[in-house]
């Protein structure tokens, strides 16, 4: 796997983490237990930090980045991803905060300062504008992303089931590497 230091800071991995060898992680990145990073993910914790919670998965071709601190913005925008989050293929997450039990659909873009509360589904191809907050318990689609409807009980259950499926899959990949 490609874990690379930046300014003497290297990624930190929790236990039972899977990072596919074509993924590249730079700098100040922390992965929680049972997290998984899939092929061709690029994550740069160079000018701020990235935190990915336990049991979260970042799927193929996704790009994760941050915004630096400045005199006008002394905190900048780190990238914070909660627990049990599924980030679909080719997603762009930039300096935003993603709560727990969130599904970010394929090709979605979430920009600086956006806050995605817990228990949210973001549809494929959605664009979440800078600074926008997506309220817990809803489906959002479109460009720009708009609240469409409340999540059903089955959809809420799926948020955790999706993360669980990726934990099982990464365990299969880890077992294969050990044999």
UniProtKB/TrEMBL annotation:
InterPro entries: Hexapep, LbH_gamma_CA-like, Transf_Hexapept/Carb_Anhydrase, Trimer_LpxA-like_sf
Top-level taxon of the source organism: Bacteria
CDD domains recorded: LbH_gamma_CA_like
Any coiled-coil regions, as ranges: none
Name assigned to this protein: Gamma carbonic anhydrase family protein
Organism for this UniProt entry: Ferrimonas pelagia
């Amino acid at each position: 796997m490609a874990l690379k230091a930046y300014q003497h800071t290297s990624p930190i991995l929790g236990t039972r983490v899977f990072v596919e060898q074509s993924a590249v992680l730079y700098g100040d990145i922390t992965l929680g237990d049972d997290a998984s990073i899939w092929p061709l993910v690029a994550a740069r914790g160079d000018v701020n930090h990235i935190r990915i919670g336990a049991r979260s998965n970042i799927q193929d071709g996704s790009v994760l980045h941050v915004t630096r601190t400045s005199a006008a913005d002394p905190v900048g925008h780190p990238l914070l991803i909660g627990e049990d989050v599924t980030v679909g293929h080719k997603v762009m997450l930039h300096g935003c905060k993603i709560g727990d039990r969130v599904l970010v659909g394929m090709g979605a873009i979430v920009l600086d300062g956006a806050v995605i509360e817990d228990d949210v589904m973001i549809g494929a191809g959605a664009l979440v504008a800078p600074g926008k907050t997506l309220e817990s318990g809803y489906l959002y689609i479109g460009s720009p992303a708009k609240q469409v409807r409340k999540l059903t009980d089955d959809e809420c259950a799926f948020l955790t089931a999706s993360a669980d499926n990726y934990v099982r899959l990464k365990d299969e990949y880890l077992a294969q590497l050990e044999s």
